[in-house]
Amino acid sequence: MALIGKNVVAPSLLVAIFTAQTMPATASVIGWGRVNMEGAIVNAACALEAASRDQTIDMKILPVEQITRDGHGLTRPFTLKLVNCGLAGENSTNTGRQHFRMIFDGNAEGKNFGVIGDARGVALRIVDSIGTDIYPGVPMSIENTLTKDYRLNYSMQLVANSQVLRAGDYRSAIRFKLDYY
Questions:
Q1: For residues 127 and 155, is the Cβ–Cβ distance under 8 A?
Q2: Rounded CA gap, 135 and 176, in Å?
Q3: Mean pLDDT (10-residue bins), the chain, 181 residues
Q4: DSSP strand E in the chain: where?
């Protein structure tokens, strides 16, 4: 009988060991927690086409007599083209649509942009595609002037200011900044 007792005890001991390992631990509770996550999906920032970044606009030679007679010279168009825009709401109502504003900045000469050089009595006037004057340092909405292919069309014109006209070379540096939100 001793032989039977050894065979019964050994398997019973193994069953007890395996059963103990698979029993749930109820003596201690680990606890609970929560994970909160937030995020946003944003549109890519617009960039200026390389040809739009640094432009030189030749205002051509203009006789003093024409400025005296007309008060201005010919208009010279220029375009700023936006690329890589991911504009929200472009095929829907204005829900989520981004708003743009353009700021031109430079040497202010009243409501126009001043020039430097030997010429006197002139300034540069900029208007958008619908005829709205652009003033130095003043933000302007561009929603009404932005074309479907993301072009902003402007024109520049040499205009007389209140100073005495004097012939000579002139130049001006006008910077622009596009903000959108």
A1: yes
A2: 11
A3: 51 51 58 76 75 90 94 95 68 53 94 97 96 96 82 95 94 90 70
A4: 47-48, 72-83, 100-105, 108-109, 112-113, 116-117, 122-128, 133-134, 140-141, 151-160, 170-171, 175-180
> Residue 91's pLDDT is what?
46
Global pTM value: 0.69
Counting beta carbons within 10 angstroms of the beta carbon of residue 8, is it exposed (0 to 12), middle (13 to 18) or buried (19 or more)?
A: exposed
Structure tokens at 43: 């549109």
* CATH 3.40.50.11500 describes domain 47-180: no
